[in-house]
Specification:
This protein is mainly alpha-helical. It has a single domain, classed as Amino acid/polyamine transporter I (Up-down Bundle), CATH 1.20.1740. It contains 17 helices and no strands. The protein has helices at residues 11-22, 26-38, 42-66, 72-81, 83-86, 88-116, 120-139, 146-167, 187-196, 203-209, 216-245, 257-263, 267-301, 318-337, 342-367, 371-389, 396-416.
Length: 417
């Protein structure tokens, strides 16, 4: 345990932190994205995603018993596969920022367009403004307080639950045929499962707070399980209601998500949802810029990223902030040229999450303490690989990023020797 680590989280606090870790921007758009990818088979997609993600919770509970110093998934990968493999973790997290951040701000811009109108200028104007604000705040040495982040996070969850509660009774007057699985094609289901992993990318974040539990060996898994069950139920409910109410109404936007459901209640609710979504995504990406700038600084200081990034000015890792915020802008510039890649970006985030979990599973196979779960880890790895194979070319992104990180680490090691 690190010297400054305070073990002060009980079970109740742990559930709150765990829920906030996994519940993010995905709740805004995954209901429509999964339906756009898999249609009637959306239910099968969520069953597949949960079937993969749940065993990871069990394995991670074993993981935090071995690595309880706050280094999380990176420390566990380093312990099992070595520093060489763990060096890819910062690079993969930056890829999540590039694609996930740009995709999330694009979705927020689409929400505003769908609710108020304005077309592409509004979509990208809102998205670029959010990226600039998310960079300026951390660059100024400011950070959103934990209380503010908690308030907006729980407000987003409560708002999504309210939309579900208001729309759920309406499904009784509609046909459920749009959500009855057909399993006619396998590839859309596999692609959907990988995209659904966007919802569970926050799982690795849970390993970084494990060291703050009073009794991590008991409370970490229980808190994570309760949060996982609640979040999955909310996502599944929103996805199925979207399939019954919003999708059959005609052509729908693949990123309409929560605002698409809110529109079935009325235009005023859709506009309120859009404004709330902008606030929620802005809070989320600002937090990511703040956190990732620190990660960039530390990784550069350790030689995992270029050392030129390990510069601190007045307590602010300014170059790290500019890199983190710049990734959002770069991603948005790509989407300006190819708006149809928004869904591809979100699928890439899921693929990167799968790659991180593959590394963690490989580490568990080497140093895990329970033989039965080592077998499960091997099976999970094989299933994840099969799902990734069904994604198509987007899987090349995390593969190339990991390869680039290995080349960078090898060059650094050669120069050092």
């Amino acid at each position: 345990m690190s010297q400054g680590l305070q073990r002060q989280l009980g079970l109740g606090d742990g559930i709150v932190f765990a829920f906030a870790s996994v519940a993010g921007a995905g709740i805004l758009f995954l209901p429509s994205l999964i339906y756009a990818l898999a249609g009637n088979d959306s239910l099968l997609v969520w069953i597949g995603a949960v079937a993969l993600a749940f065993p990871l919770l069990v394995i991670m509970s074993d993981m935090v018993k071995r690595v309880s110093d706050g280094s999380g998934i990176e420390g566990f990968i380093s312990l099992g596969l070595g520093d060489f493999a763990a060096a890819s973790v910062p690079w993969l997290l930056l890829t999540i920022m590039l694609c996930g951040g740009a995709g999330s701000t694009f979705v927020a811009g689409r929400f505003v367009d769908l609710a108020f109108g304005g077309g592409k200028p509004v979509v990208f104007g809102v998205a670029l403004a959010m990226a600039v604000v998310a960079t300026v705040i951390p660059a100024s040495g400011l950070s959103l307080g934990r209380r503010t982040q908690k308030l907006i996070t729980w407000g987003t969850i409560a708002f999504a639950a309210a939309v579900l509660a208001l729309t759920l009774p309406e499904t009784r007057a509609h046909s459920f045929d749009p959500i009855v699985p057909t399993a006619s094609e396998l590839r859309p289901i596999l692609r959907g499962v990988v995209a659904a992993f966007f919802a569970f990318v926050g799982l690795e974040n849970l390993t970084f707070i494990a060291g703050e539990f009073k009794r991590p060996e008991r409370d970490f898994f229980l808190a994570s399980l309760i949060a996982f069950a609640l979040y999955t139920a909310l996502l599944l409910g929103l996805s199925l209601v979207f399939g019954v109410l919003a999708a059959p109404a005609g052509a729908f936007d693949s990123t309409a998500g929560l605002v698409g459901l809110a529109a079935t209640i009325g235009p005023t609710m859709a506009r309120i949802t859009a404004l709330f979504a902008v606030l929620a995504v802005l809070t989320n990406i600002t937090s990511w810029v703040w956190g990732m700038s620190r990660m960039i600084y530390k990784a550069a200081e350790a030689g995992k990223l270029p050392r030129s990034l390990s510069v601190m000015r007045d307590g602010v890792p300014l170059r790290g902030v500019l890199v983190a915020g710049g990734l959002y802008v770069v991603g948005l510039l790509v989407l300006i040229a190819r708006p149809d890649w928004a869904v591809v970006f979100l699928v890439i985030v899921g693929a990167v999450g799968c790659m991180l979990y593959l590394l963690a599973l490989g580490s568990y196979v080497r140093i895990g303490q329970r033989s039965s779960w080592k077998v499960v880890a091997v099976i999970l790895s094989a299933i994840i690989v099969v799902n990734l194979a069904g994604v198509g070319w987007p899987i090349l992104v995390p593969v190339c990023v990991a390869a680039a990180s290995y080349v960078f680490a090898a060059v650094k090691r050669t120069r050092a020797s």
